[in-house]
Every structure is written in C-alpha cells, then in structure tokens.
Amino acid sequence: MKILVFSPYYPPHVGGLESHADEFNKHLSQKGMDITVFTPRIPKNAPDFEIIHNNVKVYRFPSFEIISNYPVPKFWSAVFWKLYRKLFEENYDIVISRTRFFLTSLLALIYAKVKKVRWIHIEHGSDFVKSGGTFSVIIARLYDYTFGKLILVSAEKIIANSKASAEFCRKISPRINCEIIYRGVEIKNIKFVEPDVKIKERYPNDCIITFMGRLIDGKGVADLLNAAKNIKENFKIFIVGDGPQAEALKRLAKK
Predict the structure, then answer these.
(1) In contact, 60 and 49? CB cutoff 8 Å
(2) Does residue 189 sit within a domain?
(3) Within its chain, how far is the Cα of 176 from the centroid?
(4) Which residues pair with 239 in a beta bridge?
(5) Scanning 131, 134, 148, 175, which has its CA 20 to 30 A from the CA of 140?
(6) Which residue, 150, 180, 210, sits at the end of a domain?
(7) pLDDT, tens digit (0-9, with 9 covering 90-100), for 117-150
(8) Residue 131: which region, alpha, beta or left (left: phi > 0; alpha: psi -120 to 50)?
(9) Which residues pair with 61 in a beta bridge?
(10) Closest alpha carbon to 97 in 142, 150, 176
C-alpha cells in the first residue's frame, strides 16, 4: 500500500505533531507500507530529500513562516510546483493530513479530490488559536469556520488524538463522525533514558514535578502553577519548553 502524508512540520523540526507523524510513519513502514512525506523545508538546514526508517521518502518544499509556527509554501517558487506536480504522477492508495488549520491540509484536499484517493485527516488541535494577538486570533477563527471546516467535512475519515480534539472537531462541524485514537508511547525508548542524578542530589527531599511541551494556553501550565500554591509538601516544578505564553508563565511563577 502506498501512503502520501502531508505534514505541516516534520523532524528535524521539534514538536509533538512532528514526533507523532514520524513514529507513525516508522511503524507503518516496518509493516511494509510505502510512505511518502510532503512537508515544508523548516528548518532551513533540513535536506530537500531523504529516505529514513524502512524506505520512508521525505520531500521538503520551499517554505517560510509567515508568523511563528505557521509555515506557508513559497507559491512563487518553481521548485514547489515541480515537487507538488510530481506527486500527481504517482498513484497513492491513501492520503493523510494533520491539523486542519495548516495549508498542507488544503494541499491534501486538492490532491485527494483530483486523484480521487481515500483521505484520512488526523486532528491534533483541541481549541481555536489564541496566540499572536487579537488580529491573528480573529483571522484564525474565521479560517477554522471556513477552510478548517471544509477540511473536516471533506476528509473520508477524521481521527482525533484526544477526546478534547474530537469535541473541538464537532464544535466546528457538528455533523462529522470523529474517532479517537490516542497516541502510543515508545516504552522501550523511555526505559533507556537515564535519570538526572544531579537534580535528585540537588533536591533530595523535594517532590519533583515536570512539564514538557509547548507553552500555550491549552496546555494547562498556568493551572499547574496556580495549583502549586496549595501544595504543602516540599516540591520543585520544572517547566521545559517554549511558546507564546513563556513570558506570562515566568511572571506567574514569580508570584
């Protein structure tokens, strides 16, 4: 089976969607699936083309971030159109897209409709975009209720990676049937991670609480910090990540 994946980001770019897509493709390729990934070339030092895992082919097209964490194809680039047209020369059995508000999902829609291929959309979002200022928030919401909704109603199958994501999909388009498949965990990799002895030695009597992820409203980091006021035992909270809420969370932590 040949699968074409439109991914808004892909390793070496770092993020949850990226690692989810990469692990998903790795395990499918190990089962004999022929997978091609079409993704923005971000960061710029990422190769234009590479083969990873068990023959997973990754094509990266020219792109830029019009705002932070929102990649846009360089539509004026002949290289982009050459790569996109090349996909139409192949006959894929399934098309997969990820997250409705990225333009790669629109590219997937066009491809699936023109080639009349089965299309699965995987939704990672669980709320409207709330970062980037008032103007960005308004535009993002308008986009979700137009193109985002178009993505959700057009795909043959919608998969959400959480209950919250499924509920959000139904909020945008109440009539869609959205199934939930939770993300798996690479247990073998976790077992081989050595504990940071220095941290344990530095705080031998403290309960250590750690958050790792993007610092945005929907992650609940502010709730964690507010709840910390009620913890009576000795504790330390480590927050690992970055995002639009980083400075606000630093101010909250100082309080």
Answers:
(1) yes
(2) no
(3) 21
(4) 211
(5) 175
(6) 180
(7) 999 999 998 888 776 677 878 888 899 999 999 9
(8) beta
(9) 40
(10) 150
The residue from 155, 180, 205 where one domain ends is 180
Structure tokens at 191: 């077992």
Whether 237 and 225 have beta carbons less than 8 Å apart is answered as yes
Q: Which amino acid is it at 15?
A: G
Give the ranges where 31-102 is alpha helix by DSSP (H). 78-88
Same domain as 249, residue 154 = no
CATH of the domain at 39: 3.40.50.2000
pTM: 0.85
The number of domains in the chain is 2
> Which residues constitute the domain of residue 238?
194-254
With 90 as the cut, is the pLDDT of residue 189 above it? no
Q: Which helix (H) or strand (E) holds 61?
A: strand 56-61
Strand order across the beta sheet in which 94-98 lies = 49-52, 56-61, 34-40, 2-6, 94-98, 118-123, 157-160, 178-180
The reply to whether 119 and 75 lie within a common domain is yes
